[in-house]
Design a protein that fits this description.
The complex is a heterodimer of chains A (about 90) and B (about 500).
Chain A lengths: L3 E2 L18 E3 L4 E3 L15 H5 L6 E2 L20 H9 L2
Antiparallel strand pairs in A: 1-4, 2-3
Chain B lengths: L27 H7 L14 E4 L8 E2 L24 H14 L3 E6 L9 H14 L4 E6 L4 H10 L4 E5 L5 H4 L5 E4 L2 E4 H21 L3 E8 L7 H11 L4 E6 L9 H5 L6 H12 L16 E2 L11 H6 L4 H37 L11 E5 L16 E7 L4 E8 L13 H11 L5 E3 L5 H9 L3 E3 L7 H14 L16
Parallel strand pairs in B: 1-3, 3-4, 4-5, 5-8, 8-9, 11-14, 14-15
Antiparallel strand pairs in B: 1-10, 2-6, 6-7, 11-12, 12-13
Helix pairs in contact in B: 2-3, 2-11, 4-6, 11-14
Classes of the chains: A alpha+beta (about 90), B alpha/beta (about 500).
């Protein structure tokens, strides 16, 4: 199984130096994971490194195609609370 | 290290201290360190330039005011760059800029991510530069998370200036600013993330101070989140020996794509910013001349000549750095001679302003006046009104002339045929000067002259090429003598920028 970086990657470079398998490289569009090299960090780290530092929700998929960082997981605000949080922030 | 700090009110004016030298209160060794550092000394920023090289893309935390999509050539704000450089390319660029802009004394690494989250790239750049360009000060700016682990290494490369962005010392406040950090190979979220970040920042600050490194603390003022709390931050970092506190306004626009921008968090008004800066000034020296520059800015603060030094252009340049260093030393000597002359001159004329008051019968204090200045640097009034992209705002009172801050305006005169829009842009400039009663510049056109007067701002071109604070003191004296400074309110108060 391997992780995948999809469109939406902002090319911030954070993941590239962390990969224990050197599976991540900059490509024409954005960074890409070489599926042949990716081990999902198994045996290396408790958590997959690229997905643990990626600042953008939804752009890294696990082996089953599921986003590792789903909407709301990185901002700390689940989608159903978004409108309320926005109102709160705008009242500042 | 215990630094002597000015009495309440801080000191951003040449009127406090015995001469025009606002660094006079510092120990000699520290004065020498900041004397030509534009970001650590307000006076130095009139004379010396800085540059940032964008070698550090990765970041180990998320701040709600930052969007990690940083590649943009049109925006001017921290964290934005046009091209990412390798350490070798960065070194080449630094030597090219140093040879072409001899006033450039400081090379900083400030991103676009966190320099210390990219330790190899950052330290390799420093290692090469400390060897190849020993006359350039090296400094680094960080969020502080990785700081304790690299302090030793930084000291090895002779880094004498470090900036840490500290927005809070309370994890509950931090949780509203930092959604997560990457720490020990894991993503940590919420309050615990802020707790670790704060711990590392404070530890890093203490370690640097213990090693004699000058630390500037940057804080982003976020209304409704940390404005009251920043007073506490100021007290804490000062007690630990930070040299300078720089409170900057939050930049949050939806088009920047940041969390705060998209959520509609507002930035502070200039009045809120100044009120907080004044409140913190009782605790330590405040920086008010920060322009919140890009992570690849080149030139004097407030200007960006990065486009002159793009990778393809520096490839064409053949730099003889030994020769450049000789020329740089000459230019620096000339600058220092000018500064010394300015200091001596303004010391003589300026102190007399306050001393004249003594012995005179008590009468109501004349009110303070805000004045704007157009300058390209050198500490003198030397810019055409229509060419100014920003104005420096000073407050003149019977006690002193103090620097309040810089106000950016849209350039309304490009000297070309874009006159169709000139009027609306002039109006923008006038809006940016709100609250100022005088604008001093080298020259000014007939059209803006009339509009400024109509807006209640007196244009003044009589002090071209004169030292800024001396000219402001002279204009203030004229206003006072002509009876235009009778106090309009019961209590004279500090005006806002």
């Amino acid at each position: 199984m391997a992780f995948k970086i999809i469109e939406g990657c902002v090319n911030c470079w954070a993941c590239e130096p962390l990969c224990p398998s050197q599976a991540i490289a900059l490509a024409a569009s954005h960074f890409l994971i070489d599926a042949r090299k990716c081990t999902e960090c198994e045996g290396e780290f408790a958590e997959p490194q690229c997905a643990s530092i990626c600042p953008v929700e939804g752009v890294i998929l696990d082996g089953l195609g599921v986003p590792v960082n789903p909407p709301g997981s990185l901002t700390g605000i689940p989608p159903e609370r978004l409108a309320a949080a926005m109102a709160e922030i705008q009242a500042r | 290290m215990e630094l002597k700090v000015q009495s309440p009110g801080g000191c951003a004016s040449s009127g406090c201290g015995s001469s025009g030298d606002r660094l006079a209160y510092l120990p000699e060794a520290i004065r020498a360190k900041v004397n030509n550092h534009p970001c650590f000394s307000e006076d130095a920023h009139h004379h010396y330039a800085r540059m940032h090289v964008a070698v550090a893309p990765a970041c180990n935390i998320q701040c709600h005011y930052c969007n990690r999509k940083y590649d943009c050539s049109n925006e001017s704000r921290p964290g934005v760059v046009s091209e990412l450089l390798t350490p070798d390319q960065a070194v080449k660029k630094v030597l090219a800029v140093a040879a072409n802009i001899p006033q450039m004394t400081v090379l900083g690494i400030a991103g676009p991510g966190d320099p210390l989250a990219n330790p190899e790239r950052t330290l390799e750049t420093f290692r090469q530069l400390s060897e190849k360009a020993p006359d350039i000060k090296l400094c680094v700016s960080t969020n502080g998370l990785a700081l304790p682990s690299v302090v030793e290494e930084l000291c090895k490369h002779n880094i004498e200036h470090v900036t840490i962005t500290i927005n809070c010392v309370d994890p509950d406040v931090g949780a509203k600013i930092y959604p997560w950090i990457f720490w020990n190979n894991r993503r940590i979220k919420g309050r615990r993330a802020a707790e670790i970040l704060i711990e590392q920042q404070q530890k890093g600050l203490e370690m640097l101070v213990a090693r004699g490194v000058l630390v500037k603390v940057n804080s982003v003022l976020i209304p409704g989140v940390n404005e009251e709390h920043l007073k506490e931050v100021s007290r804490v970092v000062k007690a630990k020996g930070a040299f300078l506190h720089n409170v900057m306004p939050l930049i949050a626009e939806a088009e920047h794509g940041t969390f705060y921008g998209l959520m509609g968090q507002r930035g502070p008004t200039s009045e809120e910013l100044q009120t907080l800066q004044d409140a913190c000034a009782g605790d330590m020296a405040m920086m008010r001349h920060c322009r919140q520059c890009r992570a690849d800015a080149v030139g004097m603060l407030g200007e960006d000549r990065g486009h002159e030094f793009t990778l393809d252009k520096i490839e064409q340049m053949d730099i003889d750095y030994a020769a450049a260093m000789t020329r740089r030393a000459e230019v620096h000597a000339t600058i220092e001679a000018n500064r010394a002359a300015q200091r001596q001159h303004s010391g003589e004329t300026f102190v007399s302003l306050a001393s004249l008051k003594r012995g005179l019968p008590r009468k109501p204090e004349p009110r303070p006046v805000l004045m704007a200045v157009a300058t390209t640097g050198g500490g003198v009034i030397n810019q055409h009104f229509g060419h100014a992209r920003e104005f420096l705002v000073y407050e003149a009172s019977s006690q002193d002339v103090r620097f309040i801050g810089a106000r950016k305006v849209d350039l309304y005169c490009s000297g070309g045929d874009s006159c169709g829009e000139a009027e609306t842009k002039l109006q923008k400039t006038i809006r940016a000067l709100a609250g100022c009663e005088v604008v001093l510049c080298a020259k000014i056109g007939y059209e803006p002259w009339g509009q400024l007067e109509a807006a209640g701002i007196a244009p003044n071109g009589e002090h071209a090429m004169e030292p800024i604070e001396e000219a402001i003191a002279a204009v203030y004296r004229e206003l006072e003598e002509s009876g235009r400074l009778e106090p309009s309110v019961a209590e004279p108060r500090r005006l806002s920028a």
